[in-house]
Amino acid sequence: MKERMEVAVLASGTGSNFEALSRASLDERFPAAVRLLITDNPEAGAISIAESMGIEHAVVDCGAKRGSMSPESSARMAQLCAARGVGLVCLAGFMRIVKGELMSAYQGRMLNIHPALLPSFRGLDGQKQALEYGVRWSGCTVHFVDEGVDTGPIVIQRAVPVRDEDTVESLSARILVEEHAAYPEAVRLFAEGGLRIVGRRVFIRERA
Ligand code: GRF
Fold it and tell me: Does the bond joining 31 to the residue before it have cis omega, within 30 degrees of 0?
């Protein structure tokens, strides 16, 4: 059987996307395997998910500056990933902008999931921004990570309707269902070598 691509997930919070990716990779036919969780938050719910699924985890102190990561923490994460032969890094609710060594080592091999249809509603609270703006449709986007905030080339988007009675919570829950399908799908395509980035566009080639 072909060797599977090793994946590291970076998460700061609940970890439901980490769990969705890890569950997808329980199937040996899935071309990628989640091997490592890295978090900046020792309280992250993702840690107990990792423990219950027998996935290694590491807590890396990223420094006191909110939303940003120290050069040392970036170097440490790059080192953790390289040591395990990680071929793809997935950000899943990681609340810091990736830069430094991790960024340079994994540019083009790092994905993020955002809870809005980019390029609308980048940054924090994408669901709240969409609701307040009054859009009829929102959704989620899986994209490659570049130096900006939610600006990298788009791999997959899934849309959901916004209903009159929606609250931030109900809209977020509807979007999250799509996130859990979209992220494993994007990882599968990447691991199969089916994604080609040309400028801002990502071309998808399904396996025959
Ligand atoms: C998700 O909505 C994701 O799109 C955003 O952060 C949230 C993380 O949720 N980037 P979880 O920790 O995966 O449950």
Answer: no
- Which residues have CB under 8 Å from 146's CB, separation 6+? 107, 152, 153
User: How many Cα neighbours within 13 Å face the side chain of 154?
Assistant: 12
Among residues 68, 142, 144, which one has the least CA distance to residue 109?
Answer: 144
Q: What are phi and psi of 194, to 5 degrees?
A: -90, 5
The per-residue pLDDT for 1 is 61
Q: How far apart are CA 17 and CA 9, in angstroms?
A: 9
Instruction: Report pLDDT for 208.
Output: 65
- Which atom of ligand 1 has the smallest separation from the CA of 172? 2
Which residues form ligand 1's pocket by a CB distance below 6 Å? 11, 13-17, 92-93, 113-115, 140, 176, 179
| Digit-coded pLDDT (tens) for 23-43 | 999 999 999 999 999 999 999
Q: Distances in Å between the alpha carbon of 149 and those of 83, 95, 96, 122, 175?
A: 27, 11, 10, 7, 20
